[in-house]
Design goal:
This protein folds into three domains: 6-58, lambda repressor-like DNA-binding domains (434 Repressor (Amino-terminal Domain)); 63-157 and 293-324, Rossmann fold (3-Layer(aba) Sandwich); 159-291, Rossmann fold, CATH 3.40.50.2300. The protein contains eleven helices and twelve strands. It has helices at 6-13, 17-24, 32-45, 51-58, 74-88, 102-110, 159-172, 193-204, 223-236, 248-260, 294-309, and strands at residues 63-68, 93-98, 119-122, 141-144, 153-156, 178-183, 214-217, 242-245, 270-272, 289-291, 318-320, 324-326. Strands 2-1-3-4-5-11 form a six-stranded parallel beta sheet, with helices on both faces. A four-stranded parallel beta sheet has the order 7-6-8-9, sandwiched between helices. Helix 7 (159-172) runs parallel beside helix 8.
């Protein structure tokens, strides 16, 4: 039985072969109705894309590299899955890369370890565009999250406003001794948008900043870091009535530590996270958090990358997404 061809799909859909090709390549200059009709006909006739042939004809592989620092952190696992599915909707396959440190992230961004793709979306832990200001990436590159850079396209999450909002929520409930659970090496002068949001909320309520309320764990992405941080704060004897955590993973560790010490949440200590990952709905109690609108972030990253692949060569762009409070039992 003869395999259906691209010409067969075009004839049955009532469009040109060029239009079918544009749909297959994910090009934006096709109406939604036409795109849906072409895909419907492809399913009806059983048309299967010849990836090798498509690559020869277009000079492209039809493959995008998604780069994340790990998959054990729920946020990065969710973002990776969302990107893979969003790219699949554009008939693009995905190469998933794990970059554990700044050097690996830089190599992936430049194309050293991602030569076989049409473009790269990097969700960084350490990387910023300034890390490659002396070199040009081999493929179009979009950064999703992290510190923005004017050198490359970036999707920026509302970290400062989101963290300020969750701390304001804790303050509005009458809490005044709000610990910020941070991770990584302890420094005398913390930085970053989430810390800036914490300070802004305290100032708005006239609450003095107390550096003894900064609790540090060893690693940004692990639940054990939250456990370590809050246990250290409890051992220090510093009084606190709330814990604003830099992400949901560390907040889960905080909840475990407080439970182990018989401290009631939220009656004695309220707890909040950041990222609104699925696990927050299933902690005990369920976790208040901030949603950086992951779907919105992914859609913007995919759109900008495809525009670059199609030839857009303007300066680096920024898309800033919203931050939305998701209040649950841990701070109610």
């Amino acid at each position: 039985m003869r395999r259906p061809t691209l010409a067969d799909v075009a004839a049955r859909a009532g469009v040109s072969a060029k239009t079918v090709s544009n749909v297959l390549l994910g090009r934006p200059n096709v109406s939604t109705a036409t795109r849906d009709r072409v895909r419907e006909v492809m399913a009806e006739v059983g048309y299967v894309v010849n990836q090798a042939g498509r690559g020869l004809a277009s000079g492209r592989t039809g493959r995008i590299a998604v780069v994340v620092p790990n998959l054990y952190q729920p946020y990065f696992a969710e973002i990776a899955e969302r990107l893979i599915l969003a790219l699949a909707e554009r008939d693009l396959s995905t190469t998933l890369r794990i970059a554990h440190d700044g050097g690996a992230e830089r190599d992936a961004a430049l194309g050293v370890t991602t030569r076989d793709v049409d473009g790269v979306i990097i969700c960084p832990h350490h990387f910023t565009g300034h890390a490659i200001e002396d070199q040009t990436p081999m493929q179009p590159l979009v950064q999703l999250g992290g510190a923005p850079s004017p050198l490359i396209d970036c999707v920026v999450m509302g970290e400062r406003e989101g963290f300020e909002a969750i701390v304001r929520h804790l303050l509005s409930s009458g809490r005044r001794r709000i610990a910020m659970v941070m991770t990584g090496p302890e420094t005398g002068s913390p930085e970053g948008d989430r810390f800036a949001g914490y300070r802004a909320a305290l100032e708005a309520y006239g609450v003095p900043f107390d550096k003894t309320l900064l609790a540090y764990g060893s690693d940004w992405d692990r639940r054990m870091s939250g456990y370590e941080a809050i246990m250290g704060l409890l051992r220090s004897g510093v009084r606190f009535d709330a814990a604003a955590c830099v992400n949901d993973a560390t907040a889960s560790g905080v909840l475990r530590a407080l439970h182990a010490r018989g401290i009631r949440v939220p009656q004695e200590v309220a707890v909040s996270g950041f990222d609104n990952t699925d696990e927050g709905e299933f902690t005990t109690p369920s976790l208040s958090s901030v949603s950086p609108e992951q779907g919105e972030m992914v859609a913007a990253a995919v759109r900008m990358l495809l525009e670059r692949i199609e030839g857009h060569d303007g300066p680096g762009r920024q898309v800033r997404t919203r931050a939305r409070l998701v209040l649950r039992d841990s701070s109610a």
